[in-house]
Amino acid sequence: MKLVKGLFVALALSSLPAMAHDEGHGPKLSDTGKFGGLVSAVVEKKDAGLGAKAKLQYKAELVRATDGKVQVYVYDGEMKPVDASAWTKKATVTAAPLKKGSKPKTFDVTFDGKTFIGQIPEGLTKPYNLDFVFTEKGRELLSAFDNLD
User: Fold this and answer.
1) How many degrees, rounded to 5, is the angle at CA 57 between CA 52 and CA 59?
2) What average pLDDT does this structure show over 93-99?
3) What's the N-to-C CA distance of the chain in angstroms?
4) Distance of alpha carbon 83 from the chain centroid
5) What is the distance between the alpha carbons of residues 118 and 79, in angstroms, rounded to a whole number?
6) What percent of the chain has a predicted confidence (pLDDT) above 90?
7) CA angle (147 as vertex; 144, 118 as ends), nearest 5
8) Distance separating alpha carbons of residues 47 and 44, to the nearest angstrom
9) What CA dihedral angle connects 22, 147, 40 and 37, to 10 degrees?
10) Cis peptide before 27 (omega within 30 of 0)
């Protein structure tokens, strides 16, 4: 009986990686950033649970500096810059450390006419995920950058 329980526990634990957050919140992209950053899909926040099946709305490029400054550029499907001047000027970012027991932190990025700019909070343990929530004409858009260090 102990052997059966042990095998069941081992099987259950080995399936956990299959449920991990690796798939992301939108279609897989192979684009390279225009400013040397990471490119991620921008999807409607309500569709984030669909994973790769979520409809691509835009693409976002995350550029990080060593001092914690972040810039996010928004592009259309062909990687042409999107005029986000009609969007809400502030976007909310959740920085979620992957280390067990670490608490997420939130901060804002502000649109400067070309890009969204902000500062990652100090003391954030690595690796971490950054989830950007933008508002365009009343709808919330999400771009997630995972496993950053």
Assistant:
1) 85
2) 96
3) 44
4) 21
5) 22
6) 74
7) 55
8) 5
9) -150
10) no
